[in-house]
């Protein structure tokens, strides 16, 4: 839009494990050169991880959202938050993270976000929300209604080989020790790795 911000509506990628959902979201953050916050939803049992813990409680602290927006090293109000394996979020329903996410996923209400520890209004509407889910059926209708949902199919053998080649090239180029490895993977190695990526492979 010309205002130097990047925005797309909340995006939910559904599909089996290992199809590249997380890798895609991380790559987008690098392309637009913004901060990337990976939130492993399986490990979250309460909303305070994202939205802070009230100063009335011992161990009170700000949440991931506040910390990201007020990061001294990477001052950026336009980060990408990836809610990885969204359907696995657990915990007590009274303090469930899903209830806290609903207003954050709406731009109008996100403009008036308040962290529980420091209850001042913060404009969190520039956060870009990505989420992944292995099983979309386990998500509630209100949560799904906040996202544009795309199903990612399992790649076929040829597509798996193409993915492996791309990953290998990226790892080789991004590490100083990459120069000691061949430019291309041997075909038999590609076959083995492609089989390991197949759905249901051990």
Description:
The chain is α/β, with parallel strands linked by helices. Helix content is 32%, strand content 14%. It has helices at residues 21-31, 48-51, 64-69, 97-104, 107-110, 141-145, 157-173, 187-196; strands at residues 11-14, 36-40, 80-84, 113-114, 121-122, 128-133, 148-151. It has a five-stranded parallel beta sheet with strand order 2-3-6-1-7, covered by helices on one side. Strands 4-5 form a two-stranded antiparallel sheet. A hairpin with a 6-residue loop joins strand 4 and strand 5 (121-122). Helix 7 (157-173) crosses helix 8 (187-196). The mean pLDDT is 86.
Order of helices and strands: EHEHHEHHEEEHEHH
Strand order in the largest sheet: 2-3-6-1-7
The largest sheet is:
5 strands, parallel
Query: What general form does the structure show?
Result: globular
Mean residue pLDDT: 86
Show the helix and strand layout.
Elements: E1 11-14, H1 21-31, E2 36-40, H2 48-51, H3 64-69, E3 80-84, H4 97-104, H5 107-110, E4 113-114, E5 121-122, E6 128-133, H6 141-145, E7 148-151, H7 157-173, H8 187-196
Parallel strand pairs: 1-6, 1-7, 2-3, 3-6
Antiparallel strand pairs: 4-5
Helix pairs in contact: 7-8
Structural features:
202 residues, five-stranded parallel beta sheet, alpha/beta
Short description:
The protein is α/β, with parallel strands linked by helices and 202 residues long.
């Amino acid at each position: 839009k010309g205002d130097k911000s990047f925005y797309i509506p909340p995006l939910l990628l559904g599909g089996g494990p290992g199809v590249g959902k997380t890798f895609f979201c991380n790559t987008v953050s690098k392309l637009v050169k913004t901060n990337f916050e990976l939130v492993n939803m399986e490990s979250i049992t309460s909303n305070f991880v994202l939205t802070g813990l009230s100063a009335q409680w011992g161990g009170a602290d700000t949440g991931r959202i506040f910390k990201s927006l007020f990061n001294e090293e990477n001052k950026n109000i336009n980060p990408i938050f990836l809610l990885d394996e969204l359907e696995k979020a657990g915990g007590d329903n009274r303090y469930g993270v899903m209830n806290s996410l609903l207003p954050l996923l709406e731009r109008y209400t996100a403009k008036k976000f308040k962290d529980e520890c420091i209850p001042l209004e913060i404009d969190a509407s520039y956060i870009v929300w990505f989420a992944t889910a292995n099983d979309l059926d386990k998500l509630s209708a209100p949560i799904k209604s906040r996202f544009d949902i795309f199903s990612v199919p399992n790649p076929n053998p040829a597509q798996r080989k193409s993915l492996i080649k791309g990953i290998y090239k990226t790892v080789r180029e991004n590490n100083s020790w990459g120069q000691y490895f061949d430019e291309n993977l041997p075909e038999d190695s590609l076959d083995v790795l492609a089989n390991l990526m197949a759905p249901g492979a051990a």
